[in-house]
Amino acid sequence: MSTKAPAGSRWRPRAEMTTRGTGMLACGIVVAGLGVGLSTPVLVHIGVAMTCAVVVAWIWVVLAVDSFMRTFPLARRTVSPHPLTAGRGGTVSVTIEAARSRARTRRSLAEHLDIREQASAELTGGLGTKATVRREPGRLELMYAVHPVRRGRWPLGPSLVRSADPFGMFQSNTPVGDPQLVPVWPAVVDLSATAGALMGHADRIVLGARTPSPDDASLRDYREGDDMRRVHWASSARRGTMLVRSDERAGRRPASVILDPPRDPVALEWAISAAASIALSVLDSGHPVRMVGGGLDPAAIRHLGDRGSEAARVDLLNQTIDLRAPLSRAAATTAVVRAASLTGEDSAQGEVIVAVVDPLEKAALDALSPLGDTGRSWALVRADGHLEEDARATVRALRRSGWRASTVSSSDDLEELWTRMLTAGDIA
Fold it and tell me: Whole-model pTM above 0.70?
């Protein structure tokens, strides 16, 4: 992503006095005062000269800043990739280019510019940035690496160009360009190897324990209003219930991932990462998926995805950037109840449901329990520290309702835990 902004269009030239300048001004005033008091013209002249030197230094810096702002009116910042991903490095390039000016002026200024970038600790990992600077006539490019550590939107810029007089009595840090908020996606784990097991298990539940025939694999139960011309009579006679041929979308069973964000910041990032990883694995396996709950706008929630659709991946990850912890456990319970209600509307169409939740209140359990009747519901219940006993109680309640549920910790390896849960049954 690139941004262009006038270099200093909002900023007036400002010069700050350094310690050396303060000392020079103070000495000049004192010496001049002594000269007047002692009636010694030489001391007066020296004091006035020292004071004038400070004034000249201030004028020098102000003119230098003004000249820079006129010569280099454009600043461009490029962040790659955009958005960034927590735990993965990226690069930032800041380019300052000259506009209408004489070549000698452009070259002189570009060769002497001292520039540094401002970036939040969430983008740099709390470490200083080491930049590579490339100077050309009328152009300066600053390039450095960033290492985002947290999901969210974090400030970057503006760049600061340092100007100073030759004697170091005044200096100015001139902002270049506009600050911006850089979006950072959550860290995700590649679970695509197990997505087939998740969606295939749901199919086996619907069709029975046996391996389905090629005809059965594209069939579903008859629902009122279906076109009778789509009834597959041979399979209907064999199964003893009326079956119809599925359309293309029905053949790609949809999934919903219910997110119950924890209030603990570390656990929150783990839960969002887990939910996003599971949703992306379903998406990559060719099935539509959506995330519900967690503060997501219900009006904007929809199933995303065609196989290999990069736009769907981007949409899904963008939904996670601004997720925040609930204000209270009561608010979290209300969000889970709403998510369960929304998901339940599609459960009859074969919706696969995965929930990443904290230990649940009774209202949330009552809302989620009916979703387990389909046999296509999985749950990961966080059991960090003091939550363990409540988490086990939540798991037991969900299992009684037909869910395949497990306690997890934010320190667990998600890939290993998810694989074991799908391939070896529930884990404690």
Answer: yes
